[in-house]
Amino acid sequence: MLNTYTYPKYEYRTPPEIAAGKALKVPVVIVGAGPVGLGMALDLDLQGIPVLLLDEDDTVSIGSRGVCYAKRALEILDRYGVGDAVCAKGVSWNVGRTFFRDKEVYNFNLVPEPDHHRPGMVNLQQYYLEEYLVARAATRPGIALRWKNKVVSVTQGDSGATLTVETADGMYTVEADWLIAADGARSPIRRMLGLEVEGKIFMDRFLIADVVMKADFPAERWFWFDPPFHPNQSVLLHKQTDSVFRIDFQLGWDADPDEEKKPEKVIPRIKAMLGDAREFELEWVSVYTFQCRRMAKFNHGRVLFVGDAAHQVSPFGARGANSGLQDADNLGWKLKLVLSGLAPPSLLDSYSEERVYAADENLMNSTRSTDFITPKSRASRTFRNAVLSLAKDHAFGRALVNSGRLSVPSFLVDSSLNTPDEEAFAGRMLPGAPLDDAPIEKGGAPGWLLQSTGSRFRLLVFVDDPAAVDAAALSALDCDGIRVEPLIVSRRALSADSLTCLHDVRGVAFQRYDARPGTAYLIRPDQHVAARWRGLDAAKLRAAVARACGRS
After folding, report:
1. Domain ranges, ordered by start, for the chain
2. What are the residue ranges of helices labelled H in 314-415?
3. pLDDT per position as a tens digit, 236-252
4. Which residues contact 137 (CB under 8 A, 6 or more apart)?
């Protein structure tokens, strides 16, 4: 189907429930084995929750589809066990350049400071990411992945959801405590439950052309407004792996999608851009419109929506799969606490609260980008072109250029799960912030702070002198059934048999967390700050953990 990729075909197996004539009962069922559904399964597996994952297909996504995976998504994929594979195969980049006609007017660097483990972005065709996630899931005994299993009906009650699943060998029933819908923008689960998405559909069309060619273009994002080779429209270029380049051409609303996908229409556009001498092959072509929409809330009784099933944005800014993986990261630990009886079901309201906030942030940025890229009036086009003309020489003009504000994690500063600061801190690691990484040494070996944090409640305790650490007190941090594991971060190399000790060799962690000796940070399992203090107080820690678990 593609020149550079051979699609795997995953094995369908007859579900034993068909012959037995009995319903399958599971704690959690996930519908949809795309990047977000697979990530959700691996996240729950990290929490020790068995998962049934159903997909009506038997291979990975057709076409490269999603391309850009941001630093935060890569850090999540590290915990899922596929970050190294994605970064090794993909094309890493930090720099983006914006052109107006034939002149560069603006550029940016996604990671302007050193000492981060992952780059700002990695470009990789979506089918590779899904393949790596499937392979990882296959190694986890707690994940049952069933291909060619199509959900045809869903009902739910107070204690769970019941699914009817269709296969080549007949129907069977699944009874689940919780159902997670990761079944995409056209979500059949959403439709079966009579739920809606609201928002805006943009009246424009874009052509995606993935081409295979040998070119020495740098690993950067290039975006053109009104280029000579495609006048009055915009063009985006991304380098992917296997010598594949993604080119997006704005077409306008009046373009005929079927006609524009024909090679005799696509090839002249690419030749106008690259020149007649450049040899290339078409790999994949698609025409799309896009929308900025979301559900009113993401939890509905025993059904939880993640990824495109819950929210959809335009592709400018790489916010689709990146935000979906953050949905999974946010939901997994909360569902674990609810299933374990350590938190009330109302904790899942905070999943919707926090991820609706993040979705609104993505929708706002995506809408603004789209309005700038595709002005719908003469006045807005004149304003945009004036901004682009000024941007080359004036900083205020550059601040207004919007070729797609790229995906960054949301700072959940207004979350009900946060404990407000009582003392002054500098920097951006405030309650609700996703953790900044930092280089450390652990047992004399180099490493990274986020690698040591994992997917559980952690207490970062910053110290100067390892001898000052009360190992006995810190090794017994049980907050009403919630285990909080301490991480000691010290300016000096240290060793302690009963504690995990990190050496902040160059002081980067101390600086990024505005730490002094005695400073403590409570970290949620999704690596967001829940609370922080200048000195550790056991009662305040217990209260902050209770609040982070929705128990107060």
Report:
1. 16-90+123-197+293-365, 439-548
2. 320-339, 347-373, 378-391, 395-400
3. 999 999 999 999 999 98
4. 38, 41, 42, 45, 53, 143, 145
- CATH architecture of structural domain 16-90+123-197+293-365: 3-Layer(bba) Sandwich (3.50)
Residue 9: how many other CB atoms lie within 10 Å: 11
How many angstroms separate the CA atoms of 223 and 243, rounded? Answer: 19
Which pTM value belongs to this model? 0.95
Alpha helices in 49-93 (DSSP H): 71-80, 83-89
Q: What are phi and psi of 474, to 5 degrees?
A: -75, -20
Q: Are 303 and 154 contacting, i.e. CB atoms less than 8 angstroms apart?
A: yes
452-470: per-residue pLDDT in tens? 999 999 999 999 877 777 7
Q: CATH topology for 439-548?
A: Glutaredoxin (3.40.30)
Q: Which of 350, 351, 333 lies closest to 342 in space, CA to CA?
A: 333
Closest CA to 154 of 139, 146, 166: 166
The residue with tokens 């180099």 is: 446
Q: Tell me the C-alpha to C-alpha distance, in Å, between residue 505 and each of 37, 147, 285, 493.
A: 38, 48, 49, 8
